[in-house]
Amino acid sequence: MAAEIERAVVVTGGSRGIGRAICQALAEAGTHVFFNYYTPGDREAEETAAAETRELVEASGAKATGIWANVADKEQVETFFKQVMETCGRIDVLVNNAGITRDNLLVRMKEKEWDDVLEVNLKGPFLCIQIASRVMMKQRSGRIINIASIVGVVGNPGQANYVASKAGIIGLTKTAAREYASRGVTVNAVAPGFIETDMTAKLSQKVKAAMLAQIPLGRAGTPADVAAAVKFLASEDAAYLTGQVIHVSGGMYM
Ligand code: NAP
Q1: Is there a contact between 13 and 97 (Cβ–Cβ < 8 Å)?
Q2: How far is CA 74 from CA 45, 111, 119, 157, 217, in A?
Q3: Residue 120, ligand 1, Cβ within 6 A
């Protein structure tokens, strides 16, 4: 076990976008940041992206390990966490960030589009929380932060699967917060609004303009905006918060 590591941080979906910014924000000397990533397809591009996250984390003096593992696959999740435990022997922070979209109007939505999104966005956090919380409860300390979405609260046409997964993660957050509070483990959610990442890059200019028009602060959010809220929730200053949903949406939701 690496004795010099004081804090083990696990971030799902850390190779790009918001997850990468979270890995960077939580990186400091004495911390080992573990992240996973997984998209069947362009494996080379993924490995390059993961290497970039590792470099950014290491530039802050932290250690970084990126692992190709699907959050929706129980065996792969177990292997991922086994590596964390074998290296650090503890888990201090878990950020459930990995997420996907498969948009379609409800009337046309295919069963597979529904299943894929629910598997990654909701079953994934369930699997990770179950493993990490067992460790955290024994430690009598730990922080779990789930990345939800504004649409999980207000709904969004064309995203029934995604919205259901994000509303589900809010319910999961509140229940886990109640179950683990007496063991010193806090569970909170961050609900981003419209954030500039690969996920939103695929939206049409028309949709993007309509989104921007709804943001009182007048700009899209950045991954760093979301990561700052996660960093706060993972810090000592957030010791008295649990079961909360923090909206990072430029005022889109209030
Ligand atoms: P992104 O740019 O598409 O990045 C998604 C990340 O998740 C990538 O690192 C991806 O890895 C990883 N991932 C996808 N499927 C995975 C799986 N099955 N197992 C493990 N990792 C997986 O997305 P983002 O915009 O940063 O979104 C991050 C989170 O914020 C998501 O939960 C999303 O729902 C939420 N959110 C985003 C916005 C927004 O406006 N962008 C708004 C609200 C909420 P690969 O590189 O291997 O694909």
Answers
A1: yes
A2: 25, 21, 11, 31, 40
A3: yes
**Does the pTM of the predicted model rise above 0.90?**
yes
- Any atom of ligand 1 within 6 Å of the Cβ of 99: yes
Residue of 100, 161, 166, 211 to mutate, ligand 1, most atoms within 8 A of C-beta? 100
Q: What is the pLDDT of residues 157-202, one digit of tens each?
A: 999 999 999 999 999 999 999 999 999 999 999 999 999 999 899 8
Distances (CA, A) of 163 to 65, 211, 217, 222, 233: 31, 16, 24, 21, 23
CATH superfamily of 2-248: NAD(P)-binding Rossmann-like Domain (3.40.50.720)
Q: Is 122 in the pocket of ligand 1 (CB under 6 A)?
A: no
Predicted confidence (pLDDT) per residue in 111-149, tens digit: 999 999 999 999 999 999 999 999 999 999 999 999 999
Three-state DSSP state, 107: helix
Please confirm, yes or no, whether 37 is among the known catalytic residues.
Answer: no
Strands 63-68 and 31-37: parallel
Binding site membership of 236 for ligand 1 (Cβ less than 6 Å): no
pLDDT digits (tens, 9 = 90+) for 206-237: 989 999 999 999 999 999 999 999 999 999 99
Separation of CA 182 and ligand 1 centre (Å): 31
Q: Domain coordinates of the chain in residue numbers?
A: 2-248
